Amino acid sequence: MYENKGCCDELIIFINELLKSHPDNGLVWHKKGFYLDKMDKEEDAKNSFKKALECYNVEIEENPNKYAVWANKGVILFILEKYDEAMPCFERSLKLNQYYAYAWKHMGSCYGVMGKNDEALKCFDEAIKISPDDHEIWIDKGIALKNKNDYYKATACFNRALDFKAENTRAYYNKVFVFETLKEYEEALKVCDQIIKIDPSSYAWYLKGIIYGRMRRYREALESFDESLKLKPDDIILLNLKGNTFKYIKKYQEALDCFDNAIVLDPEDYNAYLNKSYVFEKLKDFKQALKNVDKAFELEPENNWVLGQKGYLLDEIGKTDESTVFLENALKYTLKEVEENPDEPYAWANKASDLVNLKRYQEALKAINKSLEFDPEYDWAIDFKGHILRKLQCYTDSMDYLDKAFNLDPDNSQNRYEKGRALCGLNQFDEALNLFNKSIELDPTNESAICAKGVIFKQTGKLDKSKEYFENCLEINPYFQPAKKNLNELKSMTEGQK
């Protein structure tokens, strides 16, 4: 296994020497592209693959009965993402030699990326009949089964591959993906540790960090990302991930430092600017939040997340008309995302979020139901459904979903606030007040919970105390419209009593 960069460098030197005496050898160019790709030299690799394709075409023209060359040509076309052109090459290879497992394997892979998993499985089964101890074929079969959501059979295939080659990290990685999908995170972590023993690569540590993040074990996630960054210090995706993890544990300055480091490495990384905007939003610094989302918008004007954040911020500072334009554009691009990924729960959840921002709650409920149809345990969607049901004044149903979300994430300040609001709808004000207090304890800057306390005191005639909470809200967030509205109402009430 030539994962090590030094090994790849040496192999490229050797291949270049070989090409001096064999400049028209397609297989040598093919291998050069393979190792350049491993070294993340994508453009150089692509050029080598194109050169290999030229050589294979010459060979086929000279002798069209070389089944191995037809298969290799198909593989190059597959790598270049020309799947419709690749498929006839594999068919021609198998017509010349129906027992060529290599052609069956790669035809299966081609079917797989085209979304034709049943056809892919038939090809892999043919390949296994011919070469039953080829671990790579077992892995490819497992991937096709995973794509069909047949996770247990997929895992069995990956384990079969490991029977033939015990240190095959590709099989282990795919086991991690299965366990992650099944939310069996402890099992996923065990497999990550097995990978790290074999090959402590940056990607292995990155994946371990992702799993810890799914488990909300953020400090351990940060440790894993740090190990990954030691090996790839210039990885912008990692820096953004690390920054977002700091954000989750409310270490906002550390988060901003990570995003700034990403921007130094790539000044056009819109995601880092967007992430900075989210942090400044948490800090109630709407001027900086808008400044950073404006930069993200300048770099990526058709991104639904960027448009949605800008629309949300404009609404927060009272610019409703401008906000609506951006939110509607965000929804437009989210609808494209749903169209392209109709089975993806996150796409439907994004649609629900955009619809809520536009106050289209019935449509949002349908979208979040679709998200939960594809992933009934999607914790964010469960919590968000509770929020939508509250907006629709379905308070009892809302509580059911908010309770489920609470069990998954008991330290979520916003969840406590939402439950409190639902209880207000059920006229259970004492219980609601307790939840607002807990929400504020978890996040002292949660202006929604502070304002909600003020509303309860206003309703019970404790006007001075109510005013104190609304003013506290505006100290945290001077733009917070509900607090402004309630203060104006209090003013009218007190003036009317004079």
TrEMBL record:
Keywords: Repeat, TPR repeat
Cross-referenced PROSITE patterns: TPR (PS50005), TPR_REGION (PS50293)
Domain of life: Archaea
Keyword Repeat: yes
Cellular component terms per the entry's GO annotation: cytoplasm
GO annotation, biological process: anaphase-promoting complex-dependent catabolic process; cell division; protein ubiquitination
Nucleotide-binding found in the keyword field: no
TPR repeat placement: 67-100, 101-134, 135-168, 202-235, 236-269, 270-303, 345-378, 413-446, 447-480
Xref: PANTHER family: CELL DIVISION CYCLE 16,23,27 (PTHR12558), CELL DIVISION CYCLE PROTEIN 27 HOMOLOG (PTHR12558:SF13)
Name of the protein described by the UniProt record: Tetratricopeptide TPR_2 repeat-containing protein
